[in-house]
Design brief:
With 195 residues, the protein is an alpha/beta fold. The protein has six helices and six strands. Strand 1, helix 1 and strand 2 form a beta-alpha-beta unit. It is globular.
Length: 195
């Protein structure tokens, strides 16, 4: 049987618990297959994608995977969709994810500083039009008042839908009821389309 599975990926210095409002909204809409994991901060995008691969390896073969990531989690989601094409990813949704890099990255003293900088080769590869995975829809949520993903426009992935949320900051997207509703609506629509 085909199943829709939503996996939630948090950002740096957070835990999977930050998705509680969005997870509650998804469950209320009847989406019951939801996964997440918490990880130590300051790990590379590739190592987090490898951990996600381990987490989803026991899904049914026909499962349709929807990845929702906040900040770094959105970068991991899109990287996973690019690099692990054997898994049936049908949609990625990012919340304040710096696809064009962020000036704040210089304060992160690890590999993430390079990966999230405006000159990052990893981010450039994710934006490469020739490398876009077919049939994987993307929605970017951009917080208009984001000071972490700076400038806020860097959170707009160049492919797919872009939704700018006014009067909202970087972490505010996680707790905005309208954002939770919009995330849920897109997953339901993409699940119906993929069915």
């Amino acid at each position: 049987d085909d199943e829709d599975v939503v996996f939630l990926l948090h950002g740096v210095l957070a835990t999977a618990g930050v998705f509680a409002p969005i997870e509650t909204r998804l469950r209320a809409a009847g989406i019951l297959h939801i996964g997440s994991f918490s990880y130590q901060p300051l790990r590379s995008v590739a190592s987090l994608a490898a951990e996600l691969r381990r987490e989803v390896r026991n899904l049914p073969p026909r499962a349709r995977l929807h990845l929702v990531g906040h900040s770094l989690g959105g970068i991991v989601a899109r990287y996973f969709a690019h690099e692990h094409t054997s898994v049936r990813v049908v949609s990625t949704i990012s919340l304040a994810s710096p696809f064009h890099g962020t000036s704040v990255a210089r304060w992160v003293p690890t590999v993430l500083a390079r990966e999230l900088s405006p000159s990052s080769p990893l981010l450039a590869s994710l934006r490469d039009p020739t490398r876009q995975p077919r049939y994987v829809r993307h929605t970017s949520f951009v917080a208009a008042d984001d000071v972490v993903c700076s400038p806020p426009s860097s959170a707009a992935f160049p492919f797919g839908e872009v939704i700018v949320v006014p009067d909202c900051g970087h972490n505010g997207l996680l707790f905005d009821p309208g954002v939770a509703d919009a995330v849920c609506a897109r997953i339901l629509a993409q699940a119906a389309e993929a069915a």
